Structures are given as C-alpha cells and as structure tokens.
User: Fold this.
Amino acid sequence: MLVTGPRTRAVRRPRYPVTREIDEQTGLGEAYMRSLVRTQLRLAVRLCAVLAVVVAGLPLLFAMVPAVREQEVFGVPLPWVVLGGLIYPWFVGCGWWYVRQAERNEADFAELVDRSPSAGDRADDP
Amino acid sequence: MSAAYGVAGVVLVVVATVLIGVLGVRFSRTTSDFYVASRTVTPLRNASAIGGEYLSAASFLGIAGLILVYGADMLWLPVGWTGGYLVLLVLVSAPLRRSGAYTLPDFAEARLESMAVRRVASVLVVLISWLYLLPQFQSAGLVLRTVTGAPVWTGGVLVAVVVAVNVLVGGMRSVTLVQAFQYWMKLTALTVPLIFLLLAWRYDGAPGLASDTPPAFDERTTVSVEMGVTVDVTAPVQVVVDGRVDGRTYEHTPLTLNTGEHHFDQDTSVTFPGGAAVPHVTGRPATTDRAWALPLDGREHSLYATYSLILATFLGTMGLPHVLVRFYTNPDGRAARRTTVLVLSLLGAFYLFPALYGVLGRLYTPELLMTGRADAVVLTLPGRLIGGVGGDLLGALVTGGAVAAFLSTSSGITVSVAGVLAQDILRGGVRSFRAGTLLALAVPLALAIAARHLAVADVVGLAFAVAASTFCPLLVLGVWWRRLTVPGAFAGLTAGGLLAGTAVIVTIATGPPGGALGAMLSEPAAWTVPVAFTVMIVVSWCTPGRVPPGVARMMVRLHTPETLDVDRGTWRPKRV
Assistant:
C-alpha cells in the first residue's frame, strides 16, 4: 500500500491496535467510534432528507399547483404516473446508492482501524 | 365465478403451503432452528420471504379496493409500504442485524438493559400483531364467502388452522421456504390475470375515467347484497327488488327508491336500470370520475390524511413485529442491507399492479361501491371481464393468491408474536412457543368474528400507525443516540402506545366521529409520532443519569462491520 505509506508515517503511530483502544473504551477508541457513527448518521440523514423533500413535497405540490395534478402524460394523470410507477425504481436507486456509500464508510473505518500498527510497519519496510 | 374453480384455488394453495412446511420440518430441530432458520438462507430467498411475508391481504386485495373507492390519494398506501423499507434500510437495517436481537423486546433489552422497557415492548408487539391479524382473518372470510358462499367465519378459521399447523410443525425454517414460495405465487396470481384483463379492456375500446359524473350502471344490472348495508341514493330510481329493503320484504317487485338513505338486508338482490347512478355506502363520498382520478379531491381533510398516511407507513414498517425476525436470518449487517435493497425491488415490482385493478374495478364493477365490499374487486374482475372457463381459471388464480397472502402474513406474525409470548409471558421453551402460537391466533380470530367488518387496508394502516408511534422512535433513537435513557424510552413507548392505541380503539369500535377530530383519530400518526419522539427525547434529557452503562459497547456492536475483531459485549437473546 504505497499510497498509505506517507500518511502512516506522518501520524503518531498508536501503541496498540485501534481495535484494542476501542475494546478498552479509551478516549482514542471512543473518538474513532464516534466518527464512524457520525459518518453513517450523516449519510442516513442526507438520504432521509432527500426522501422527505420528495415525499412530503409531492402532496404539497399537488395541493398548491392544480396544473401539476391535472397534467396528463400519454393520457394518464401525472400523479398516477409518479406514484403508481416512477417512484418505485427511484426508491430502489436510492437504496442501492445508500448501500454503496454505507459499505464504503465501513471499509474506510475498517482500514483505519486495522492499519495500525501492523500495516504501518509494512508501509515502513521499503 | 363458479365455486368449484375457486375452491380448487384455495385447496391448492393450502395443500402446497402445508406440504412445503412439512418438508421443511426435517431441518428444524433445535430452538434456534425454530426461530430463525439457522441463518443459512440465501439473500434472494430471504428477500422473497420478506416480500412474501409482508404482502398481506391489505396489499393483495385492500389497495385495489381503496383505490376503487377513494382514487388517487390511496396510491400513497403502496408507495408508503415500499418506502418504509427504504427508511428501514437507511436508519436501522444493519445495526438491527448486528444487535443480534430476534425480536423487538430483545432489542429493547439489549440496548437499554432494562426489563421494564422490555415488558412494554412485549405488550406493544402483541397488540400490533393482533391488530394486524384481525383484518387478515376478516378478509379470509370475505374471500371464502365470495368464492364458495360459506359463512364469513369459516375463512378466518381455515387460515388460523393452516397457520397453526405450519408453525407448530415446522417453525421458522419451513416458514421461510413457504414465504419465499408465496411471494412468487402472489406476484403470478396478480400479474397473469391482469394481462388478460387489460387485453379485454383494450378489446372493449379502452374506456377511460374522465367523465364529470359519479359512476353509473352501464346497462341493466342486478346487484346481490351479501351482507346488510345502508346506502345513499342521490336521485330517485326505479328498481326491482328481491329481498328486504328498509325493513319490508319484496319478491321481484318494482320499487322506487327515493333520494336518501336506504337499508338493504343480507341476501337481497336489486336490479337497477341502465344509466342509474351507483348508490354509495353511507359515509363514502360519491365523487365524479374526474375528481376521483386526481389527488386531494373529494375527501375532507385529505391533505392531513395524506401526510398522516405517509408518516405512518414510512416510519411504521421498521416497527412491525414480523420484520425484525427476518433480518436475523441474514448472516451479517452487510447482507441485511443488500437483502433490503432486494426487498425494495420485489415490493416495487408487486405494487405496480394493484392500482390497475382499482382502476378497472371503477370501470367494470362499480356495484362494489354499493355493497361496501370493495376489497373483493380483485376477485370479482376476472369473472366479470372474461367469461367462461378462462375467467373461472383466472378467478381461481387470484383466489389462490389471496389465500397465499393471508397465510404468509399470518404465519410470519404468528411466529414473532408466539416467540414474544413464549419468552416474556409464558415460561419459555418449545412447549411455550407452541402455547404462544395458539394464543397468538385465538385472540385475533375471536375478535375478527365478533367485530364489525372493516376495510382490510384501513386496519392494517392503523397497525402501522401504532408501530410508527412506538417502535420507530425506540429503534431510531436507540441506534443513533447515545443519550437515550431508560425512563425516556419507557415514557416514549408508553405515550405513543397509549395515544395511538386509543385512536385505534375508538376508530375500530365506534367508527371515527366526523370532522377534524375524526380525521385525527382515523389517521393518528401525524400527531402521535411527533409526540412519541418528543417525549422520548425530553424525558431522556431530564434523566441524564439513567443512560445505560453499556451504551458504548452497544454502539460498537451496532455499528462496526463484522470483519473487525472487536469486543461486542456478551449479550445474547434469551433462547426459549
């Protein structure tokens, strides 16, 4: 892992593996955990906010702008097209995107935690 | 539809369900097998099982019925039932799996280390489950009556017996197989007839729904009223009656129905002339087709009702008792997430179709607006549009799908509520699980026979509202907020449960009163969910000393990927 090499050397290498810091609930371990939870929460909140804007916005849009609710697409009223069809693939797309992001966050965290000190030693070798 | 085909459909699904259940029994021996299928289920099968279990009679029959009556506003129902899984995925899926809890009370105990909170959660699980089972049994009665003319209670009893046999013999493993089979069964049973229905509709000249009049009978139509009903007649109409109307008996007698309310007794048939407006069940709005096709038209407080429905469905899904058990069958948190995305796709595919049945029903079976049995629209359409043997076969197929819907949802809920009853109320062990199964089924069955008939999707909607007002705050705050305290969780669950529970009881027992209060009681989520969240947060703020001591370890357990070698604590769910 050449890319991680310089960064590992720059950071003070922990005495224990971070997993042990987490196990012993030291300040450092807690900081790692809080950062993981915060990252995942930020992702979840972001997606829920988009969902809320769309889902709460549609009834409001239909209520405020009658032209939208009476709009027809190929003879079918727009609300039926959106709520009866398009919204489902959008849900799946959102879910798929979320899973990718959440797994990436976890992989980043695992790499951060597992890297030291053994991975750091490896990076020092060449 | 001819009775023989319908009965064949019912028998086939029942036999297949029991057979798969009994074949699965060879694998389920220990308690762990009984509950969670030993966690050796593949993602697609698990996702199919989740979908199969989730798509209840409310989805298979209820949505089409409500769309037939209320129109575009009801499109939010399937949207919410799918979107609920997206919220669940994002907020709780992986942490829930990592918690290692089988049931919601397990999660409450693990996270808060409090038996008091566990007990409240147990009571709520049992109440929500019964609320969910009640309409399943009632619509089973409706289906059997539509198909065979059997008394209404027989359907509920049939479903209860088959579920009891399956759960008692096989436990969760066999249930998983059955559920996975039933998702595909339901999808087939809904889509294949629909293809033929749409072809018949095209052949009929593809009529639309844009007129400025309420639904009317196209031609001279005889309506058989199978259960007593009171309707509003909007204009005087000359009919021929065989049976009892407004307390008087007629035998094929012409009669003029004046404007106003009229009561038809059970087993009365009324023949309307062509062009007569369809009288609506008292209290249902007689909207024009144009208003019906547009959202937020026709009903009082429809914007409030829409938002409340959205809140209940999107947030209630995660709190349903039979959903969490399914997550345990994933090997780890990552698989739980991926399974959920698969579930989203399966549900989305299914929910494209019920609305079309509602639309076709508005065109071809408007008399359901009068008999008050809109839930039967999916069953009635094949026989109406496609005559002869073809119509009979398709009718048998949708009937089989409906039976699959009752069986799968009832089995799933029964397993989870029996587990909770066995662990928290009985002594535990496989024998308690069996007693719990019987108890889990008997109470809602008795209620279903005793209570007045309710629209299946409405009651299921109330179960979602209770779940959203109790378990949603517990799960979301439990997973993400370290400062949640024992008194906070206790107070929030109690407040949400009491408020939503009262609204449900009033709505079911007496029917909601009119006006704004009625809207608030029949769709309580918009105010009970914020109240529950607020109570949980404020009480937690006020009792900072009561944060559970193991919260840091629990956060490690909930959020770290399983690949990491860290201490996740020693908590294990109590095995029955």
